[in-house]
Design a protein that fits this description.
Layout (H helix, E strand, L loop, with lengths): L7 E5 L1 H10 L10 H4 L9 H6 L6 H5 L5 E14 L11 E16 L5 E13 L8 E14 L6 H7 L11 H63 L6 H23 L23 H12 L7 E5 L8 E2 L2 H11 L1 H22 L4 E14 L14 H6 L4 E10 L5 H68 L5 H36 L2 H4 L4 E2 L5 H13 L42 E2 L17 E2 L33
């Protein structure tokens, strides 16, 4: 504040500001200091990937239950024992034995819940039993096993919902994991939306801070001019220069000087930000140029001080806008991320309920096993001949084959845990549905407030324009009368105060109207499209696109075109972004880049056309509601450009 001269300005449009903020924000910043108070609650670009890659609850973690498993173990025993019964010692009561076992297994669970296993057991036994065929021998066999659930745990649907190793009340199949990822994407979208809203809020806060400073400087300069004239009369002792009038004019000057200093530097109070009275943010034009400019630097990721001062280049909307209520309601219920997130939550609870009901069935498994056995003095062929020369030759001869089949039945008496899990899931599902109904009511309530705020703010724009015009006329008339000694100093000073208040109120109503229009877009769930911000998921493996295309073709969907080399066919990734473009631009549309990233990092030439919105601008009158004066080249100079002459709004 002690060095108010600004050498260079950084002129930024709203689009450039939004682009900077999104490009420089790995963490979605906020203006409430949450990154220090509750760092775990801060949204970042990594959040969806963190949820999806969670080894416990993520998609890959759920799919890992179907991975093939290889196990192997080897053990060796040295036995030296006395036996009471010669029968158990093979003819001796003093058994001396070397015994080794090697076990190897490859197992896998299928999507239907069937468990397959291929096992190999190899044993080496060398002992002093006199009844042995040979002193040491190898026994090896291979088992092929299959266990298929007939009741509990059976079917692809259950295993996709709960996973093959699920227990009652703990459901985490691949479908649930994917729903968790969709919920994380909705959370991320809400974070980006609120961040974009805060960036726009702060941008217009800074616009108002400059206009407020401009009005305060104009009033201060007018008060200074009046004080100088009264002071000149005071020094000459002439009429009109009485001491009380000189002090009154001086007090008015310092009052406006104080207001100009506050408008320049500002106070550390809350600015306009999301959820400070309305979802999108209720206007709080109480800061100053420096304070609000630092807030905008924080959001955009720019250095807090780099020798330049950010200055907005855009003007608020002045045309009256009307919104179709029925269309807005439909857009809100379809596009709001909170509603979509809650619907995913309901689908998750429905899936958990369906899976938990499966645990009310008994565990009835069909079990089958087939075995090949081999026995021999050696494990591998050694050039000898005869029966049981080596175990591997005996195994491959197929002379010894065994098989087993049967069923296994088990169930807890009463199914207490299963019934508790079903009841718990039913209560959770009922709660989520009730929450969805209340969310829809809340969305409609907030939307009605936002639409009503648009009407109120625009009415104030017209009213404050007329007030500003009347105040300017009053100042001119009183100034002329004062110079002709037909008006008192009180009237002149009061007219200057009124003009300053009218100027500030006019610009305040303009910014309130701009933010009200923005808040309608937020309540409709179209704020990101309104600011040309699009989200897309990361690329899938090439085989996934080919499989998806084949599945769509098998369901009767025609192929739209033959993909070129390196080109992926159009696969649905949620709402089709082409719906947000005019029909004439569809031919120029290309599939968005695959990454959970933010499109405004593209160059300006690559931005999609402005989305089609539901508001219908009403043709402006001849004067357009008055031409708003452009920002002065140096708002801190004592020689500011005069405010443009206002025009009457009927």
């Amino acid at each position: 504040m002690t060095t108010p001269e600004v050498e260079e300005y950084l002129e930024l449009s709203l689009e450039d500001t939004m682009r900077l903020a999104l490009a420089n924000s790995h963490v979605l910043r906020d203006l409430g200091g949450a990154v220090l108070r509750v760092p775990d609650g801060i949204r970042s670009k990594d959040d969806p990937s963190i949820i999806e890659s969670d080894p416990r609850f993520g998609i890959e973690g759920a799919l890992s239950a179907y991975d093939a498993t290889f196990t192997s173990n080897f053990s060796f025993e040295k036995n030296d024992r006395a036996l009471n019964n010669v029968f158990f010692g093979g003819g001796t009561r003093i058994l001396k034995q070397d015994f080794a076992t090697w076990q190897t297994q490859l197992s896998k669970t299928s999507a239907t819940g069937t468990q397959f296993a291929l096992k190999n057991y190899t044993q080496y036994d060398a002992n002093n039993a006199p009844g042995n065929f040979v002193g040491s021998a190898f026994t090896t066999w291979y088992d092929i096993e299959a266990r298929h659930p007939l009741l509990q745990g059976s079917g692809t649907r259950f295993n996709h919902l709960a996973g093959p190793n699920a227990v009652s009340g703990v459901i985490n199949g691949v479908v649930i994991a994917r729903i968790n990822s969709d919920i994380a994407l909705a959370d991320f979208e809400m974070g980006v939306r609120n961040f974009a809203s805060d960036v726009e809020n702060t941008y217009w806060d800074l616009y108002f801070a400059y206009r407020d400073l401009d009005a305060k400087l104009s009033s201060r300069n007018a008060a200074l001019d009046t004080w100088r004239r009264i002071h000149a009369l005071y020094e000459r002792g002439r009429r009109g220069g009485e001491a009380e009038k000189e002090a009154q004019a001086r007090e008015q000057y310092y009052r406006f000087e104080e207001e100009a200093q506050n408008a320049l530097h500002g106070k550390l109070v809350d600015g306009t930000r999301t959820n400070n009275g309305s979802s999108g943010g209720t206007f709080r034009g109480t800061g100053g140029v420096y304070v609000v400019e630092r807030r905008l630097r924080l959001l955009t990721g720019l250095p807090i001080s780099d020798g330049r001062l950010i200055r907005p280049t855009e003007e608020p909307i002045k045309a009256p806008l009307t919104f179709d209520w029925d269309v807005c309601v439909q857009d809100s219920l379809e596009n709001r991320a909170e509603i979509r997130r809650q619907k995913w939550q309901i689908k998750k609870r429905e899936a958990e309920l369906e899976a938990n009901k499966n645990f009310l069935k008994p565990q009835l498994d069909l079990v089958g096993r087939y075995r090949w056995r081999g026995f021999g003095k050696d494990l591998f062929p050694n050039g000898g001949s005869g029966d049981f020369n080596n175990a591997m030759s005996d195994l491959t001869s197929g002379n010894f084959q065994e098989w087993q089949t049967g069923v296994e039945l088990s169930f807890p008496i009463g199914f207490r845990q299963a019934y508790a899990a079903v009841r718990h899931s039913e209560l959770q599902l009922s709660r989520e549905k009730s929450v969805l109904r209340e969310q829809e009511r809340s969305v409609i309530f907030d939307l009605s407030n936002a639409v009503a705020e648009v009407d109120r703010a625009y009415a104030l724009v017209e009213t404050n324009m007329n007030r500003r015009m009347a105040a300017a006329e009053q100042v001119a008339a009183v100034q002329t009368a004062f110079e002709a000694d037909n008006a008192s100093l009180d009237s002149l000073l009061d007219a200057h105060r009124r003009q300053s208040d009218a100027d500030v109120s006019y610009y305040r109503s303009l910014v309130e109207y701009q933010l009200a229009v923005k808040n309608v877009q937020l309540e409709k769930g179209t704020l990101l499209q309104y600011n040309e911000i699009f989200l897309s998921e990361g690329a899938w493996p090439g085989k996934a696109y080919r499989d998806a295309e084949e599945r769509e073709f098998a369901r009767g969907e025609p192929r739209s075109h033959t993909p070129l080399e390196g080109e992926s066919p159009w696969i649905s990734r949620g709402p089709d972004p082409r719906q947000m473009l005019p029909a004439t631009d569809w031919g120029n549309y290309s599939s968005p880049a695959s990454e959970e990233t933010i499109a405004p990092q593209l160059s300006p030439g690559e931005m999609a056309p402005e989305p089609v919105s539901n508001e219908s601008p009403v043709p402006d009158s001849d004067d357009g509601g008055g031409e708003t004066p452009s920002l002065p080249s140096d708002p801190f100079s004592d020689t500011n450009e005069p405010l443009a002459e206002p025009q009457r709004v009927e």
